[in-house]
Write a structure and sequence with these properties.
By secondary structure, this protein is an alpha/beta fold. The chain has 15 helices and 18 strands. The protein has 3 domains: 141 residues, Response regulator (Rossmann fold, 3-Layer(aba) Sandwich); 151 residues, Beta-Lactamase (2-Layer Sandwich), CATH 3.30.450; 151 residues, Alpha-Beta Plaits. The chain is flat.
């Protein structure tokens, strides 16, 4: 096993915040990290995820620093192993191949922080010190809660609420996913209020939706809708009842703890979600008709909403930023950047699995003439029309992107050549047989296509693959347009 150790193995847990495991398959990087941390901490190093997992199974580490990309298992496997042994172990993910998605995946799986290569030693040490301080705080807080018998009886309820808030905020810190934030919050509200079910209403400029969870069992949409209809004005602060009933507002229902959900008459208590003076939604507790929420629970729910309001706003803004980073503003499909990221991932997957996929490039024929004749607004409308037709004719797992001005790229995963040709011809035909129908006129147009097939058994670079598809597209233009040409590989 390729494992090196510096510091004293036997003293790793002599005090909180002293024991670190460094995981990186690059020997130079691994030694750089060990040298930077030596003298401050007891440092153990491993050259693979498998070695790291074996070490974690034998002993505790306060902090694990791991590369995301490792041979065999990835750094996410190391993260999962560390968290399964000790949920309060800190994990710092390091990589030179980061995307927003990979950072989100790491954080959603429990990573405390994320560092990009190359990085400076002061940045590393600062990050490590903060994470070690966080771990020490968590462990000492847990000890205080465990020793609650030392607290005066009249203060036990308050200590219990502090413990609940502590565990709740700890769970919230480990996710950027909307569904997880909602599930964690609804679960906490249900438990503290002893509710039949709870709802969270989101009223942000670009998001109007409702999330519901029963305390136990599975709630049917019809049962919840009936409760909503009777108590709408008291339960929701920003979504019109008519809009919800028309189906325009998404409603996500989560499963509760083990047990049965009883659909009996109930009443509701609403707690608005407020951020810097503006209401962004509400948390509503739905209880049995004869149940009451005492003063302590009521106070706790007010505090809970003050915690979750900025978190909810943040995760929705984060989702919006991530979506905009991948989306073309005109057409709503993937943009140039996301096209390249997707193509790189598909090439890596095909090389790993020795599988095949296809790349299709499309370009609107005589687009300059459309712009010159009808104006740029109509030209933009034709671009949107083509994006719609391409999207309607591909599979759900295919990636459709705006590659350039009037040029589009389509990635067809797990596609053989004959299937890719059939799909390409179907798209080509759907565009040519029906003109674009604007407000005042119908404008016929066509598109030319270049198709390249990638074989994981004969890998080529991303740029070479795009060049092949582009040459095939040029050939389609040269030979009369409105056709599909397959690249010679």
């Amino acid at each position: 096993m390729r494992v090196g150790v510096s510091g004293k193995m036997g003293t790793a847990n002599a005090s909180v915040g002293r024991s670190i495991l460094v995981v990186d398959d690059d020997r130079a990087v691994r030694e750089f990290l060990v040298d930077a941390l030596r003298g401050r901490y007891a440092v153990t190093s491993a050259a693979s995820a498998e070695d790291a997992i074996e070490l974690i199974g034998k002993r505790d580490f306060d902090l694990v620093i791991t590369d995301l990309v490792l041979p065999g298992e990835t750094g996410l496997a190391v993260l999962a192993c560390a968290k399964s042994r000790d949920e309060f172990a800190e994990v710092l993910m390091i990589t030179g191949n980061a995307t927003l998605d990979s950072a989100t995946a790491a954080i959603n799986n429990g990573a405390g922080s994320y560092l990009l290569k190359p990085f400076a030693i002061p940045d590393l040490l600062c990050r490590v010190e903060k994470m070690m301080a966080m771990r020490a705080f968590h462990l000492r807080s847990l000890k205080l809660m465990k020793d609650s018998e030392l607290v005066a009886p009249d203060a036990l309820g308050h200590v219990d609420d502090l413990a609940s808030l502590y565990h709740f905020t700890r769970k919230l810190m480990l996710t950027l996913e909307i569904s997880e934030v909602m599930r964690i919050t609804l679960e906490e509200a249900n438990a503290k209020a002893d509710a039949k079910f709870c709802t969270i209403e989101v009223c942000l400029p670009d998001y109007k939706e409702i999330h519901s969870m029963p305390q136990t069992g599975e709630a049917g949409k019809a049962d919840l809708d009936a409760a909503f209809a009777e108590n709408w004005s008291g339960a929701f602060v920003g979504i019109p009842k008519e809009r919800f009933q028309s189906g325009a507002v998404p409603h996500y229902i989560y499963k509760g703890r083990q047990g049965e959900f009883g659909a009996a008459a109930c009443k509701c208590l609403n707690f608005p979600l407020i951020v810097t003076g503006k209401t962004i939604g509400s948390l509503t507790v739905w209880s049995a008709a004869n149940a009451d929420i005492d003063e302590r629970r009521n106070r706790y729910l007010h505090i809970l909403t003050s915690f979750i309001s900025p978190v909810i706003e943040h995760v929705y803004l984060d989702q919006q930023v991530r979506s905009q980073a991948k989306t073309d503003g005109l057409t709503g499909i993937a943009n140039h950047r996301y096209f390249y990221e997707s193509l790189e991932r598909e090439i890596a997957r095909a090389n790993r699995k020795k599988s095949a996929f296809a790349l299709l490039l499309a370009d609107i024929d005589d687009f300059k003439a459309i712009n010159d004749t009808y104006g740029h607004q109509v030209g933009d409308a034709v671009i949107v029309d083509l994006a719609k037709r391409v999207t309607e004719n591909v599979r759900s797992g295919d990636v459709v992107a705006r590659y350039g001005g009037e040029e589009f790229g389509v990635i067809l995963p797990e596609s053989d050549l004959s299937g890719a040709i059939a799909l390409s011809n179907r798209v080509c035909e759907s565009i040519s047989k029906t003109p674009y129908a604007g407000a005042k006129r119908k404008i016929p147009y066509t598109a030319s296509f270049g198709l390249a097939h990638y074989d994981g058994n004969k890998p080529i670079t991303k740029d070479d693959l795009i060049l092949l598809a582009d040459q095939a597209l040029y050939k389609s233009k040269k030979e009369g347009k409105n056709r599909v040409t397959v690249a010679d590989i």
